[in-house]
Amino acid sequence: MQILTYLRCDGALGSPVIEAARLATGPVGAFLPVPPGDLVSAEVQRAAVRRLELAGFGTAWTNEVIGKDALLQLAVLLAATEHMVFGTCIANMWARPPQTTHGAATQLWQAYPGRFVLGLGVGYAQQAESVGREFGPPLATARTYLAQMGSPAPELSYPRLLAANGPKMLALAAEITDGALPAGGPPDFTASTALLSAPKSYSWSTSTRAPRRVTRRRSRRRCAVTSQPASTT
């Protein structure tokens, strides 16, 4: 398990649904990646998230690899817990048509209101090739996919984040989604992406380093994040 730390900009207000999701996710969550070809049984996953919930974790995130459906996995994990919030980190755009993703996300939000966040990303060329598609320009692919998902009705709205590390994708995340999901960087990188995508900022950082304890402090530039190594015991 890795620790997923994330930062929200102070003063960056969104819809009631988004603000509720921000409060529900809290400052730190568990990241539960499954490597390709090493799928874990549903029973083992259910037992794991129950232990996490009992240990006090309020949020957990799962990845998507070839051979595992991230949204179906979240349906299993949501049903196994009572209060935890779950998000995709990161659901792949090549895995399903945009309308199917939107429909599945809407169903999860209806069934578990306030406990689901959809993180989407363009992914990699091999993921496109696995479904017989050509990996095109990432920015154009993301814009088209998100547009085809359509705008959900207000009562069915769910938080939608875009995987983004570079300035152009971050700008797209700020323009047409509820925030950015930068991946693979330390917390200070998350802080920089939050500033780039302000004022509409909702950013995470997945770190391959040792788990960290994260504190937040206000700054003149809207938000900042500081971190210290945390005990792994």
What report would you give on this structure?
This protein has one domain: TIM Barrel (Alpha-Beta Barrel). The model is unreliable at 5-12 and 198-233 (pLDDT under 50). α2 links the parallel β2 and β3. The strands form 2 sheets. Strands 1, 2, 3, 4, 5, 6, 7 and 8 form an 8-stranded mixed beta sheet that branches. Strands 9-10 form a two-stranded antiparallel ribbon. It is an alpha/beta fold. The chain is built from 8 helices and 10 strands. Helices cover 37% and strands 21% of the residues. The longest helix is centred in the middle third of the chain and has 14 residues, at 98-111. α2 (42-54) crosses α3, α4 (98-111) crosses α6 (138-149) and α6 runs parallel beside α7.
How many domain regions? 1
Task: Please provide the count of β strands.
Answer: 10
Please state the structural category.
alpha/beta
CATH topology: TIM Barrel
Describe the main β-sheet briefly.
8 strands, mixed
Q: How does the overall form come out from the CA principal axes?
A: globular
- Quickly count the helices: 8
Rg from alpha-carbon coordinates = 17 Å
